[in-house]
Records
---
Amino acid sequence: MTASLSTPRSDESSNAAVEQRTIGVGLISVGWMGKLHSRAYRNLPTFYPDLGIQPRLVVAADTAPQAQDYAVNVLGFEQAVADYREVLANPEVEVVSICAPNFLHAELGIAAAKAGKHIWIEKPVGRGAHETAEIRDAVVEAGVASAIGFNYRQPPAIQYARNLINEGKLGRITNVRGRFFGGFNADPNFPLAWRFIREYAGSGVLGDLMGHLVDLTHFLLGPIGSITASTGTYITERPAMKGSPDEGKLLPVENEDYANMLLKFDESALAAGALGSLEASWIALGPQAEYSIEIFGTEGSLRWNFERLNELEVAFRDENGAANYTRLFANPTFPDFARFQPSTGTSMGYDDLKIIEASKFLRAVTGDDSESSNIHDALASAQVLTAAEESAKTGQWVDTPVVPGNTSNTRKEA
Ligand SMILES: NC(=O)c1ccc[n+]([C@@H]2O[C@H](COP(=O)([O-])OP(=O)(O)OC[C@H]3O[C@@H](n4cnc5c(N)ncnc54)[C@H](O)[C@@H]3O)[C@@H](O)[C@H]2O)c1
């Protein structure tokens, strides 16, 4: 189980002519994620030429005029508008990226599905399980494809880890330990943006980081069956936003900045019988984006950390019964890696994860067999987060029934 030397694989970067299909793209909100989705669409054909998909950036909507300018002059959209309804009414738009603040996701997601548009929507999809279920219902009723911004599923090292787990290389899974620790909200002088207000964000770090970690756990090990959780808010006040009527005042933070949970897997999960603990913080001093997961089994273990996304550490029992971690560099034998780089040790980055995500979404749109996350995965994650909020109030374990249609890692016979 050593990192292979770098032999470029020509099959993944074939120059053979492929029939091209143009897909009209609409974007709602041109912030961090909107720009990232747009770059992913633009770059997709160069990394996945064999898909024959040419995204066409038709129209972007943002209420901020400077974001509209950016969409046209920098990202290359043909048109930018203030009102998202113009995106949904445009017959040349086939897929819509929903990259707005959380409180708009339900309105936008439901309207997009009703307009017959396939949606790639950022997480958290709804403000809790109830709202996410409403979007799921609209997507199912409309019969449109969906993909969720669960980008931590996409690193080649994570996909490789999933293959190792599925091949039984870790033996029986005993436990998982995950922690998504960021320090991006650790400064108490950082203003009270929408993310700290329940009406606009829903939960705090639960929806923001724990949702990713729950999805990653589902993706690698299968559905979580029950949890107990605690949450805390340690920066309880923040300065009002500049230009707001309350500028100069300190206002209350309305959601949690730290959360933890203990979990048991559902009996259908690949890791049925295993236990785990997950933590998330967006006020952790020290870690930058220390989004990590460790999985332990009777024959081996593995661990991964987003700060070193091109590396996977594995430990397997040797003939003497000993096991030590070995560091594997992502390489062209890892899923999707050869699309980006022909050589081990040449790093991929965050933008590349979104290109992989786009490729899976657009494959789902064109009806090809796809490994895309979907709206059912969003509900599965949201359900665990809502259970965590309930458990944090009551101190009880809460069951999280399996959501049909999700793509979590189940036992073959389940
Ligand atoms: N997948 C990830 O890892 C990840 C990372 C960051 C953010 N996100 C999610 O992406 C979403 C957006 O976050 P962001 O960081 O890009 O936000 P952002 O603050 O950078 O951008 C939000 C944009 O929405 C625009 N907007 C506000 N109201 C609007 C309206 N009515 N119509 C159209 N546009 C409107 C704003 O003008 C702004 O340009 C959030 O749900 C967030 O949780 C996901």
Note: The chain has eleven helices and 17 strands.
---
Amino acid sequence: MTTQIQNLQRMPWNQPSLGEEEIAEVVDTLRSGWLTHGPKATRFESAVRDELGVQDAFAVSSCTAALHLALLAAGIGAGDEVITPSLTFCAAANVLRQVGVRPVFVDVEPATYNLCPEQTAAAITAATKAIVVMHYGGHPCDLIAFRDLADRYGLVLIEDAAHALLARRDGLRAGSVGDLATFSFYANKVITTGEGGMLVGRPSLIERARLLGRHGIDAPVWQRRRSADYEVTVPGLKYVMSDLAAAVGLRQWSKLAAFTARRAEIAAAYTRALSGLPGLATPRVLPGVEHGWFLYSVFIDPEHAPLTRDQVADRLHTEHLIATSQHFRPVHTLQVYAGSADRPLPVTETAAVRQLSLPCYPAMTDQQAERVITAVHELWGRRN
Ligand SMILES: Cc1ncc(COP(=O)(O)O)c(C=O)c1O
């Protein structure tokens, strides 16, 4: 075992794929003398807008910034209730709290771990202003059901599409159905700008978000002739994406389809090899879905598997030098949200102890995917 380990390279859970193209584009930006939000950010916005078929796009400093601007632009604030899953990253709940909103956590569906439309409908009250859905791991939520629900009750629909850049359900692109949608280009996402995000959606809302995201100044710096030639009409924030980040984003964007296809290949290899292991559920892809494959999630049922999720993670790490991750620690279990769940969240809480994210990213080789498969089989006591 020791000699075997000595010959193994540690395998990260995730790794960005960056090439000479990104480096050249950044150098070009540095040489251009224009570093902040400018021509490259604008090109990046156009590329996203055209590809997703959305009406407008605003490149920002993170998905969290996009979520914050989405709430401000839609006029969501103190006294409002917003329905959102707890099985997600804390960003949406944090910005809700920042604008004085009480997040109402609703459970997810066991098939996809996305927010459940029926339970969402049951949680709507006179104070509900919006629904923030999240496309778990890259599998879109039921976009048609949530659009209908939002229209029926006059609610704002916001898609946190941080995981779902090239995903589709029932012919609809994730990020194109909400009044607003947000994407993340954080370092571990399907494409990255290091830190970065994109807010897309209805033009009137994006226009408001642009204003709020550049200090409330009524004209972007790079369109102004004189530096004092502006007015501040609202107390804004500074959330724009720099052209340095956009330079990376533009080149990453042109690789998105290839990256997603490679992720899908690795996911298919995992599902072929791991389906049928006792107590291990591979991710379900519902009919009519094109998965974005940000995550490859398995769910380990301790009653039927030889090991618990934590034991699998520990042994992959120590015996096979394979890193994994977990998505997510439910938001309502985080210290600052303690006691904030006012309804049972059984699927969320079960997922929290069973879910494990295996390495799945374009920089992985077939041999590395095979190494993960072999390691999992070994832990289940199977020989290949
Ligand atoms: C579902 C979800 N939303 C939002 C975010 C926040 O993204 P960012 O780091 O770009 O602000 C993340 C980050 O991992 C996420 O997983």
Note: The mean pLDDT is 96.
---
Amino acid sequence: MSVLYITPGTCAQAAHILLRELDLPIGIEMVPLRTPDSPIHRINPLGRVPALVVDEDTLITENSAILPYLADLKPDSGLFAAVGSPERAQIQSWIGYLTFDVHAGCFRPFFRPDRYSADASVHPGIRAQAIEQLYLALAHVDRHLQGRQWLVAERYTIADLYLCMFVSWLPRLGNTERFADLHNLARLQAAFQARPATRQALDFEAAR
Ligand SMILES: N[C@@H](CCC(=O)N[C@@H](CS)C(=O)NCC(=O)O)C(=O)O
């Protein structure tokens, strides 16, 4: 039996939504974060989600590894692409961009300014700058989407899913007007929200 460890509302949501897209026989276990007694510490030494344990003994961490791994289990889903294809590299390129520039580069300083300065008086400035950096990072994506329905190829892939999970975090920043001119992103986001797998995962997490 394989198990995906998640915490509602975190970046583990991407792997959770993907599991629902693929309808794979993998269990889902909810864990609390940042509490010393959380079971996640026995699973992942970093204490982070998502964490996927395959067949009870093989740990895979990082969205950038888990999303491609899961999508490869059902290649006919079209959510990833064939080994050796340029599309596959393009999807991986977007996943790398989202992990580094968007998640670690913008959301992390916004949500965890304490990691960047122990001086709480500068945290509002760190947060404000994180929003500006995020705007620039997402404006790049929005320009790429001009005249395109999806990030890569002519279909919804794990790159779109991962992107839209981050876009769904924007209301948490308390400054949605800053992102109001990113119309291509808003269009993609509406398509993501309408997918049954997205709804199932979000409803499941909201009920916990
Ligand atoms: N680069 C990792 C980031 C994982 C990560 O930071 N997860 C957060 C939730 S969004 C977490 O578990 N934080 C708990 C902690 O850092 O203690 C990935 O994409 O999987």
Note: The chain has two domains: 2-77+197-206, 86-195.
---
Amino acid sequence: MARVTRVALVTGAGAGIGAAVARRLAARGDDVVCVDRDPAAAQAVAAQVGGLAVTADVAAAGAGDEVVERAVERYGRLDVVVTSAGIERTGAAATLPTDVVRESLAVNVLGSYDVATAAARRFLTQGEGGRVVLVGSVNSLRALPGQAAYATSKGAVLMLARALAVDWALDGITVNVVAPGVTDTAMSAGSLGDPGRRDALLARVPMRRPARSEEVAEAVAFLSAPESGYVTGVVLPVDGGWSAAG
Ligand SMILES: NC(=O)c1ccc[n+]([C@@H]2O[C@H](COP(=O)([O-])OP(=O)(O)OC[C@H]3O[C@@H](n4cnc5c(N)ncnc54)[C@H](O)[C@@H]3O)[C@@H](O)[C@H]2O)c1
């Protein structure tokens, strides 16, 4: 029987880790749906990978169902979903407005929830299982000063993955977290571009260097492969040893 081309939907695909994931999954032969709130960025990466660009803000009501519908409209099925859309807001907790925390939770947690559950409804309809990979962070496991909003949201992403993994275990739908450490993207450009902050950050990393987005994408490729069907509810740090060192 001819093998069906797998279809992967990646949020935050317009830049950084999401873009690297889109390229990696396309390289293994998946049809890739590139979702981003930045239309030009989504378009550019979709053009690179020969995929479909979809503009959406994952925090908007109904976004999950909408992007899954677009994927199915174009490719007829869905097999993999990767949630890389995320924001990092920092600031001392005592003065950090609650709205900043709310925004972080809306994008990083509820956006992941909405897209993952919309994808799972499609997986359940198809009846062939599916792969969900949520992009967490070393901050799913470790806190740093000034990260009340971000670390709270990324900690929730880890527990969300565990909860979904248990809910869908009998349906062949796996749910896992990739937890990057500091990765060389626009998100970390401010800290990596400042020599003092870069040194302080990399002092926490046994490998003393940031990750390349491609190194994170490789972990996503493993967790979203058809062969990884018995791995669910785990977190895979890609952090140069940061979380191992404590
Ligand atoms: N860069 C790092 O050091 C690092 C470390 C750990 C975890 N992460 C996580 O990896 C993921 C990707 O980060 P990155 O470094 O590639 O960031 P990035 O800022 O380079 O790219 C993020 C992309 O997501 C999109 N996006 C943001 N909010 C969105 C929304 N509401 N709806 C749709 N698209 C949205 C942006 O437009 C952008 O294209 C994030 O979840 C981030 O928290 C990054």
Note: The chain has nine helices and seven strands.
